[in-house]
Structures are given as structure tokens and as C-alpha cells.
Amino acid sequence: MPGFFPRGMGMPLYQFLDRYAAEVTPIDRLLLSSMRQWVACMRAGRCPCSALGPVLRGQGLAGMLPDLNMAMLLLERESLSRLRFKPPFAAEIGDDEALLLSLHALARAGAQPRVDAVIEQIVKPEARLPLSVAVARIAVALAR
Fold first, then answer.
1. What is the pTM of this model?
2. Nearest to residue 65, comparing CAs of 73, 53, 74, 55?
3. How many angstroms separate the first and last alpha carbons of the chain?
4. Cα-flanking dihedrals φ and ψ of residue 97, to 5°?
5. N or C end of the chain: which has fewer CB within 10 A?
6. What does the pLDDT look like over 31-84, one tens digit per residue?
7. Smallest Cα–Cα separation from 112: which of 98, 95, 133?
8. Do the Cβ atoms of 36 and 117 come closer than 8 Å?
9. Residue 21 pLDDT > 90
10. Rounded-to-integer distance, Cα 11 and Cα 76, Å
């Protein structure tokens, strides 16, 4: 992956690096689990929406599924380098997972210029706006 962040961005990456999933907030655990499950489903040739739908519906977040699916598709197909995800029930948070959790934390904090700076480091130019929109909509869904 290209450099994690531009200098001086004050990113919350370190709140997720070298951490265990059990140490982060329930929202971040849900996002981490959802991202990992999405990747595992795609690798197994299964529909990620059918696996994630019941989980998100159970949390009252079914409306977030299309945006999560869009974000993950963009990350899968348009990233500047291959992002690595740990298996769904791994205890530790991986570096790329920490980066994406930081991206979502910035979006929930309303730090759109910083969100866009991170996105610029992750995906190709044509995917930046759609990813930014999907991440912003996920943040709105999680705020309800």
C-alpha cells in the first residue's frame, strides 16, 4: 500500500494498530467483522449480502448494507494495492483493517477532508467519489 497517510493528517490509525478486536468499540467490531465476512464470502464464491444482511438487520442497520457492499466492492476492485484482511474470527486487527477502521472513524467524526485524503491513498481516482459517498452514508447509518 502507498504511504498510510499524508504527513500531518492527525489520523486515528494508531487507535487500531496492534490492537485486538475485543479492545475496540462495538461499532468498530461490527465494521471489522462485516468487512472480514464480506471478503471471506467473496473468496468462497458466496454472496456477501446474504451473509451480512441478517447480522446487520439484527442490529437495526439493514439500510447500511448497500453502502457497505459498494465500499467493499470499490476497495476490492479499485484499490491501488491489494488490501489484506484477516479471517472473520481473528483476534488481532491487521494493518489494512486498521486503516479502514480509521477511515470510518474519521467519517463518523465528520472529518470529510481527512476522509478524502485517506481515500486518495487507497483507491484509483475514478473510485474516490463513490467510495467517499458510501463511507459517508455508512457513518450516517451508524449514527442513528
1. 0.90
2. 53
3. 33
4. -65, -40
5. C
6. 999 999 999 999 999 999 999 999 999 999 999 999 999 999 999 999 999 999
7. 133
8. no
9. yes
10. 23
